[in-house]
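Recap for those who missed Tuesday's class. We walked through two folding examples back to back. For each one, the amino acid string is listed first and its predicted structure tokens come directly after. Nothing is annotated here on purpose, so try labeling regions yourself before you check the end of the notes.
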Amino acid sequence: MQVNRIPVLSDNYIFLLHEPQQNIAAVVDPAVAPPVLQLLEELGAKLVSIFNTHHHSDHVGANRQLMQRFPEVCVYGGAEDRGRIPGQQVFLKEGDRVEFAGRVGEVFFVPGHTRGHIAYYFPPVVEGE
């Protein structure tokens, strides 16, 4: 799996996970759509998942636009943020599992920045990944 970091706004990053063998992608906290869409086009990848860590607009601002371009995309977020994350379909809690490209990640509840903040952890498959 390749991890691409996209700097946006004045102090944010969007992370795009790309699985080249399946040519699919997931995006973490998409603030704005154009750089995500550009990278997806360059990679020729299909977006299948949006992983949101919390509800602030500088982390979910592109959800709707990405959902319009990729209608089958699944939008994940914390259960505490129900009704605050645009298009959210999956409501996660501490210890839940998420899947991307055949890999299983774990959800951690990490309140602090927001009451409902969560983190995703995908362990490496091979050393050094």
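Example two. Treat it independently of the first, because the proteins are unrelated.
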Amino acid sequence: MERNAIIFDVDGTLWDSCQSVANAWNIVFDRYKELNGKTVTAEQAKSFMGKTSEEIFSTLLPDLEEQKMLSIMIECGKEEEVEIAKNGGKLFKNLEKTLQALSQKYDLYIVSNCQAGYIEAFFEYHKLGHYFKDYENSGRTGKPKGENIKLIIQRNHISKCFYVGDTQGDYNATKIAHIPFVYAKYGFGTIDAEVPFIESIEELTQKADSLFENINA
């Protein structure tokens, strides 16, 4: 019997890695004299979550010529993987218990705007990869989130699903992919739309069935 699917964002939906990300960026920034001692706080890193790496670093480093900015961006991405592999991030309360329960009834997926290697580092440190059937990210495909959601749906022959995310960008991506959106209200962002929401990740175990009942197959 074909199972329904839930597709998740990562940052602000499954965990908070902002401190590890900020630490990684600061390690890299310290290597470049032309950045004049620039540093980033965890709170500043949080404000960038949900954006692509190119969007983040063109905003963070607007005065650098493009090739230099891209080089630092790639270096920061690699350092993030090292930092996350070493220190992980802060999982939202009862995340693994929730994933375990959901995976018994639904197929679980991830689509994120992160760089290649980031989801793998998340899986490696927290040992959660076995709960997910597949994942995709803009760093690997070069495509925006809406197109990557479509890729996951096509690749896995998904007929009925919804996406769980916490930012306006996540919501906009579901409009491109033509799938329902569930707002992770506990996350980092806000949504300019009336949509179903959850106030904790574990709430999804109680609401998932009714959310699917409202989706036309």
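Answers for example two:
The domain at 5-16+90-213 is CATH 3.40.50.1000 (Rossmann fold).
The first strand starts at residue 5 and ends at 8.
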